[in-house]
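Protocol step 4 of 5: obtain the predicted structure for the target chain.
Materials: sequence only (see below). No template structures provided, no constraints applied. The aim of this step is simply to have a reference model before the mutagenesis design in step 5. Sequence pasted as it appears in the construct record:
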Amino acid sequence: MKGLSPALRKKKRYVAFRIIASGDVTAKDIIQEIRQSVLSLYGEWYGNAGLKLELFDEERKEGILRCYREKLNAVVAALTLISRVGDVNVAVKTLGVSGTIKGCKRFLESS
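Step 4 output (structure tokens):
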């Protein structure tokens, strides 16, 4: 059975971000806190946002988050509202948005 044609698929965007933290954070804690932030801001709507943590470097505290294009502004707004991950105070800085992971990696390399 064939999949959906490209014209019918939902478009994705990738958000490069950096975590400024006073301690160590893990990828599992980050994605849990991102989902919680979107859930508290928008309710059950986040299930339709296509959120997925594509890449997270725990040493550099940088990552790439995938979401659907229609939900991009709401997801970026929810990212900026994150202030704690577990017991660690954090700030999330959005480095850039791209349509491909390769393009998003350029934001991580240039910063």
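Step 4 remarks: The beta strands are 12-21, 52-57, 62-68, 84-85, 88-98. The radius of gyration is 14 Å.
Proceed to step 5.
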